[in-house]
Amino acid sequence: MTDPRTTVVVITHNRRPELLRTLGHLAALPERPQVVVVDNASTDGTADAVARHHPEVRLLRPGRNLGAVGRNLAVRQIRTPYVAFCDDDSWWAPGSLAGAADLLDAHPALATVTARIVVEPDGTEDPIVGELRDSPVPGPPWLPGPALGSFLAAATVLRAGAFRAAGGFHPRLWLGGEEELLAADLAADGWWLTYADDLTIHHQPSVVRDSTLRRTHGIRNTLWFTWLRRPAGYALRRTLHLARTVPRDTASLRAFAEAAAALPWVLRERRVLPPDVEARLRTLEPAQRDSTARSYTG
């Protein structure tokens, strides 16, 4: 079963062993997808290893660490209608790419399909899956699964044209909660996002990660998204809530400082979401307050 509808895009930085494991899993998929790897300026021989062990993979070397924007670089060059993202420490289960493409084929107003995440090596569900499965966001009756307010890049298949039209991932956000702004802009463009419980991606978290930096970026990006797209009153309340609830540590202080330093840019680019999209996001507030799976906002 080959399936030419979807290209898999993987961004990586100094995780050669994990990336080679992921590429091995992707090469074994029955869909035989095209795979594009964006090497974000690795210094551990990643690019050479990919070229040597997986010559069928298209390798992009931008020469610097682009973060999530590395995905934009890849999507600009692919020709398939759909793009599946995964990280260098995750891989799609057999049949899931074809299943996501079937859903996108069948529902022209659907932009993203997010899969169930299984954490390896234990094979347990990621805690965020329960929140996706029980999403309170109201959706149209035709939607094949729960409507979502955002998506998880490393577990999602997207309509490539919608991704490009919305501008992809914003370069300022880099990595860490970078999906929220793009998801809102897709919704503002009239697209819907869904979760599909019968599709699966496996995630074996890398031991090589800077969790403190990722949390800093996550808090900062949450603030930026709130200031860029949410109504003024809500943005103020959300900012005060975060200030009260995030851990009182250097990472949080740095996040607030970086966010505040960019206020001139925020004010220039601020564009409040349409009322219907804002109403959808408001339905997520109780779940976000009670969440035990979201690590960015404490």
UniProtKB/TrEMBL annotation:
Give the transmembrane region(s): none
- Which residues are in the Glycosyltransferase 2-like domain? 7-127
Keyword line: Glycosyltransferase, Transferase
Keyword Oxidoreductase applies: no
Q: The organism sits in which domain of life?
A: Bacteria
Gene3D superfamilies assigned to the protein according to its UniProt record, in alphabetical order: Spore Coat Polysaccharide Biosynthesis Protein SpsA, Chain A
Instruction: Extract the InterPro entries matched here.
Output: Glyco_trans_2-like (IPR001173), Glycosyltransf_2 (IPR050834), Nucleotide-diphossugar_trans (IPR029044)
Q: Which Pfam families match?
A: Glycos_transf_2 (PF00535)
Q: Does the keyword Glycosyltransferase apply?
A: yes
What family is it from? Belongs to the glycosyltransferase 2 family.
Question: What name does the UniProt record give this protein?
Answer: GT2 family glycosyltransferase
Q: Which organism encodes this protein?
A: Streptomyces griseoviridis
